[in-house]
């Protein structure tokens, strides 16, 4: 790390000490050209890849999936079955890679931990009064600590969008810092809920705010609002992590979540990652898909490439 980068990191760390400093910095970020971002994302979405590269992309996408169930009707049996599928997505093909993580509510973490213990698959839990984020800080932190104590090694927190949109940046910053501390050794993914942030400029500001406060990942969505992950929003977030690493030397991951259902969708995102931030982020440690139905489509396309025939949607378990 250069002396300039070290100095920049030190200067940025000071921003969290003052609401005024945070506001000045965040509103001083370059504005996002919305038309340009939309056009760039659309252009990248038209790229095609050859058969060998497609096979590699499918296996990479499988390894990047955070296999997710976040329903009020979740049961111990359901999440155990999901964890077993995460370990062996295609029981008939041992060459099929495992997914990146299983993501569940805190109450379901102990049951998933029973299945994943000793495996390379991560255990993620949403926390901090997911999906609204509307709870007192002490409850959010207790939620986080309970999930980690039960076995989660990744926490997906939600920011207080009301506070952010009202310009109370210090409040949002302090909550992320406190949640990061409550995580202990667990990684923290910060959900921006971009569908509620209104503008791309706000997405850029929220991305930087989350990273300045110590987030290990920035994540688009809870999947519980009508507008979830989109290619242009993810492009803005990728540009933010790229610029943040250039300024501080610290790499932060990105997780689009919600609405990504097909192999074609996933490959569009992988192309965007490669073209925007490069191969360093083409790794499950730095890029994830928050999804439930995506995995089955990836498995169907993988079988098609391997055998020449589709296995059909009922060949794999529904999640």
UniProtKB/TrEMBL annotation:
Cross-referenced CDD domains: DeoC
GO BP field: carbohydrate catabolic process; deoxyribonucleotide catabolic process
Record-level GO cellular component terms: cytoplasm
Family assignment from sequence similarity: Belongs to the DeoC/FbaB aldolase family. DeoC type 2 subfamily.
EC number: 4.1.2.4
Protein name listed in UniProt: Deoxyribose-phosphate aldolase
Superkingdom of origin organism: Bacteria
Reaction it catalyzes: 2-deoxy-D-ribose 5-phosphate = D-glyceraldehyde 3-phosphate + acetaldehyde
Organism placement in taxonomy: Bacteria, Bacillati, Actinomycetota, Actinomycetes, Micromonosporales
NCBIfam families: deoC
InterPro entries in alphabetical order: Aldolase_TIM, DeoC, DeoC/FbaB/LacD_aldolase
Pathway of action: Carbohydrate degradation; 2-deoxy-D-ribose 1-phosphate degradation; D-glyceraldehyde 3-phosphate and acetaldehyde from 2-deoxy-alpha-D-ribose 1-phosphate: step 2/2
Key words, A-Z: Lyase, Schiff base
Keyword Protein transport set for record: no
Molecular-function GO terms, alphabetical: deoxyribose-phosphate aldolase activity
């Amino acid at each position: 790390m250069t002396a300039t980068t070290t100095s920049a990191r030190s200067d940025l760390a000071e921003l969290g000490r003052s609401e005024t400093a945070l506001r000045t910095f965040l509103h001083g970020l370059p504005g996002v050209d919305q038309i340009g971002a939309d056009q760039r994302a659309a252009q990248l979405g038209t790229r095609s890849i050859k058969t060998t590269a497609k096979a590699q992309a499918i296996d990479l996408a499988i390894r990047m999936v955070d296999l997710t169930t976040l329903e009020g009707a979740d049961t111990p049996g359901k999440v155990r079955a999901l964890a077993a599928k995460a370990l062996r997505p295609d029981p008939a093909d041992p060459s099929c890679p495992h997914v990146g993580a299983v993501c569940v509510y805190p109450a379901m973490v102990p049951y998933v931990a029973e299945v994943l213990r000793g495996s390379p698959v991560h255990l993620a839990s949403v926390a901090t009064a997911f999906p609204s984020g509307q709870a007192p800080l002490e409850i959010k932190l207790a939620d986080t600590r309970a999930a980690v104590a039960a076995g989660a090694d990744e926490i997906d927190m939600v920011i207080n969008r009301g506070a952010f949109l009202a310009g109370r940046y210090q409040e949002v910053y302090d909550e992320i810092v406190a949640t990061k501390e409550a995580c202990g050794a667990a990684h923290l993914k910060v959900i921006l809920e971009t569908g509620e942030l209104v503008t791309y400029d706000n997405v850029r500001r929220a991305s930087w705010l989350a990273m300045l406060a110590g987030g290990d990942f920035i994540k688009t969505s809870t999947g519980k609002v009508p507008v979830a992950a989109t290619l242009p929003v993810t492009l803005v977030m990728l540009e933010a992590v790229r610029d943040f690493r250039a300024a501080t030397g610290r790499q932060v991951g990105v997780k689009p979540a919600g609405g990504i259902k097909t192999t074609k969708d996933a490959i569009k995102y992988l192309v965007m990652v490669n073209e925007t931030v490069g191969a360093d982020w083409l790794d499950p440690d730095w890029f994830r898909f928050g999804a439930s139905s995506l995995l089955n489509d990836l498995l169907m396309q993988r079988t098609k490439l391997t055998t020449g025939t589709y296995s059909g949607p009922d060949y794999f378990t529904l999640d």
